Amino acid sequence: MTAPGTRAEAPAEDTDDLDVEEALALVREPHGEPRSDGTDDSPARTPAADPQAPGERPAERHRATPWTRARETAARAARSRTRRAPVSVPLADALGLALAAPLDALTDLPSFDTSAMDGWAVAGPGPWQVREEGVLAGHAQPERLTDGEAVRIATGARIPADTTAVLRTEHGRIDAQGRLHTTREMLHGQDIRPRGQECRNGDQLLPVGTLVTPAVLGLAAAAGYDTVTVVPRPRAEVLVLGDELLTEGLPHDGLIRDALGPMLPPWLRALGADVIAVRRIGDDARALHKAVTRSDADLIVTTGGTASGPVDHVHPVLDRVGAELLVDGVKVRPGHPMLLARTKEHQHLVGLPGNPLAAVSGLLTLAEPLLRTLAAHPAPEPYTLPLREPVQGHPHDTRLVPVVLRGDHAVPLHYNGPAMLRGIAAADALAVVPPGGARQGEETELLDLPWATAGIGVCFT
């Protein structure tokens, strides 16, 4: 894992509109010395203060891609050259995927007249003589009723021919002679679900692009589907770089525990990816080159090695494989030296910084929009909340700060340095703080964390 640095030849921006398949379509902390508890009492900075991070040349920093444009570039990259074949999957495997074909009714729903309540099916005006046998759900067509006759009926059971209405159990009484009386006015057709009330055979129930939720699964099953046609999950592979990383025990002798290896796979799954492999590469250029060239994942995610230090091999390997560098540095803190490259016609690589919170920034800046677009999921609606406290900003770059949501405010969390995870572990979202910082009470855009919204795409297994 290398210290954050920068390398910033920004790619030329492609301003042409690209067709989308229809329907699927802080190197260091700013001024102020942190207290021992990880907090920072400095006031929000303004662009007048412009310190230079160690090892950072001003020209490099300012050529990096603006944060918003970097996210747009990631989404556009997934649209521009990727045509992913739909797949048919069992209903049990479809949760969280997007429909690649309309969900059309295969039959009328309901497919026969059914009782909407437990009670009696009655014919004509009352009182009614009640038959001995009842009508249960799942049985064949019951015998026809004649005027003055009633039969016990269960919810979901077939309605006998010539039934006038269903009298709910709580609205009827039986007299001493065994005759049924209604205790309130009864309307013709009451509590009967007629055939085709919800849909007719061939009706479109849901369009292409609909996200498969538990309710969608229920509708598909009710409509007679065993499988649905969906956009497959993007496949992701994680390459963990760094010779200094331990996989168990306490840090010692200059070695540190690897936080990204355990964190990234479930996070990528929560973003909708199918993580097919996690490989530990170390600081080995040949091993990294081999892993990149042999991967058949839709997305390769690397950790660390994106700056220009002596063991930062990501850029040289991308050069060697002829990758197209789409984003090389982003004007965001933490996470400035993140990158996005197209390594093959249908494959991309997101290079994350090695510092943990900086890596989270890279995930949400580049990997999230790319994976979302590959999976044909709609972009979340942006929203803002006022900040309960002021937040220090960077003079030129966007800053992503962990927050918790309390009522109608976002509360910034401390322990938000690039190498810290204590803040993000308690967070509900990241506040998108513009250059110069944000005042107390200022409306600020928020990025939800995937599990904080209880979204159906969340999967940690």
Describe the protein.
17% of the residues lie in helices and 25% in strands. The chain is an alpha/beta fold and 461 residues long. Strands 1, 21, 24, 25, 26, 27 and 28 form a 7-stranded mixed beta sheet that branches. A 6-stranded mixed beta sheet has the order 9-6-8-7-11-10, with no helix packed on it. It has a 6-stranded mixed beta sheet with strand order 18-15-19-23-22-20, with helices on both faces. A hairpin with a 2-residue loop joins strand 22 (339-344) and strand 23. Helix 5 packs across helix 6 (314-320). The longest helix has 19 residues, at 356-374. Mean pLDDT is 84; it is low at 1-62 and 454-461.
What is the residue-mean pLDDT, rounded to a whole number?
84
What sort of overall outline do the alpha carbons produce when their principal axes are compared? elongated
Note the main sheet.
7 strands, mixed
Distance between the termini: 27 Å
What fraction, in percent, of the residue positions are helical? 10-25%
* Helical run tally: 8
Task: Please identify the structural class as seen in this structure.
Answer: alpha/beta
